[in-house]
Design a protein that fits this description.
binds magnesium ion, 3 domains, 599 residues, alpha/beta, binds adenosine-5'-diphosphate, Rossmann fold
Length: 599
Amino acid sequence: MSETENKTEEKDIPKMSSREFWSKLWQLLSESHRLIFVILAFTVVAALLDLLKPYIVKLVIDNLTNFQKENLTLMFVLVGMFFVSDQVRSWVTYLNNIKILRLSVDIEYNLGVKAQEKLMFLPLSYHETENTGNKIVKIERGVQRIMNLTENISWEVIPILIQVSFSLVALFITDYRLGMSLLILAPIFLHLTFKANKKMRPYRKEMYKKYEEASGKMSQSIININAVQSFVQEKQELSNFEKIKKSIRENEHFQWSKVMLSNMWRNSLVNFGTAIVLLIGIYLVYQNEITIGSLIFAFTMSVNSYSSLFRLSRFYDRMEEGKEGVSRLMDLFSVQSNLIVKENALEPDDIRGEIEFKDVEFNYNNSKKSALDKINFKIKAGKMVALVGPSGSGKTTIARLIYRHYDPLSGEVLLDGKDLRDYSLHGFRRFFAIVPQEVEVFDVSVRENIAYAKPNATQDEIEAVARTANAHEFITKLDKGYDTLVGERGIKLSGGQRQRLGIARALLADPKVLIFDEATSNLDSQSEALIKEAMDRISKNRTTIIIAHRLSTIKKADHIFVLEDGKLVEEGNHLELAHIKGGLYHKLLKLQELGEITE
Ligand SMILES: Nc1ncnc2c1ncn2[C@@H]1O[C@H](COP(=O)(O)OP(=O)(O)O)[C@@H](O)[C@H]1O
Ligand SMILES: [Mg+2]
């Protein structure tokens, strides 16, 4: 991954409709559909049992107000029912809670794995548009929010909805006037909630974007800590970070003050509603239209409903807040790889390793400047060729196209005469290996780093490739030899050591096509000489492509391609090219000879 490219490209994603959101969420939770239905069923049962209790209390009170001895058994039966319904409710809740927590844990597992899978298989072009910190926050917050969302829905939203709707029915049955009061006030209440949330949406969006930015900023300064400290930019980095954090803080303060204000209004509405129910109830009892038991029943139901509505609205606030985080994660899941692999893609058992570029044109991210301009060449199987040219001339880009990290804009890249796009990615990449300019080293032992592409390699195999790469000697001098931990990004190794480790790793994969991208540029002259000496062994039986700006390493190449500004300007072997007076190769050669003299 290129570390210099740390800006986030905020793609303007069209706003998701609510329906789209829920249906996408439903798809994301595909592994848990069954569990969700079970939870739903339990929740309905629990909510129904909840309604039973106030009704039993009503019956008890009605019985008490004109109490007769014969009713004593009925009383006991009612108390018994009260106890039993309570007890059943406890069991159902217990079982349901277990299921809900399981759902939550499952979601964390499934989405975490899915996100990692997505990231692993998205092409380089995606990874170059967004930095590490942003991606991690996107995933972590997104997964956390989905967990909260499902917990809230199962613990609060569904029970409340059931409760409120049944209460409404019960109130209407008791007396239509009681029902009406709830029916009129509830929508006003919901309207206030929706309105407040709609206003908040842009602020939430902004906040999540800033969360990602802050994390991106943080990871960038940590990853590049060496540069930060060497150039004494600690304070600058900190102040940039603080700036983002401050804007998050202000945003949050603002949001919370708005939410609290809206809470206050909603609260007043609740108070008003319950007072109205009490008034109507007293009137109805006075008129002898309902019993005292019914009044208490209706009042309990409506107080419960109002406080539920209030809770529901708070959850709606939080749900809306969480939705933004979830949408960002969904966007990640819906990023499509722009490398399309055909259905019956080739998965050859072996390849010869002949590579051909036919009229290949390529631009990065649709930029105007072309990185490769009508490139044509053919590399015969088993040959050693070199790509040379000034920095920025397109050498690495050619390597990336050979690897199909990108597809050409037009023209085609052929492997053994067939378009790369006819193969599956794994189908051909497993025969390739590359030693890149910056060898990516994992924070594990030297041995594991070398054996990265072949984890079950034996010590002998590992040592053999390390010797060929001239790495064995320095490895044995390390603290713990092959078991030395190399630190994050191989920080404990020198540039040259990292590169030799990279060469050993590539060799262990025993590739049919081996690419060195400036792999000797970080080497001191002595190790370079050692690699040059090893080159014959390294390139045996395979197509070898050496990208180098030090021409001394490539004199032995069968064929040399010279690039300038994305164009192929010269080709031939070393001697032929060296004799083209005024040619680019000749010029480069002269420059380097001068350099060598002054060295
Ligand atoms: N990921 C990228 N996004 C946009 N432009 C790029 C990217 N990588 C390289 N380029 C540009 O493409 C051109 C060729 O780069 P590259 O192939 O890396 O050159 P070389 O390896 O010969 O030094 C340069 O102008 C460079 O700035
Ligand atoms: Mg390069």
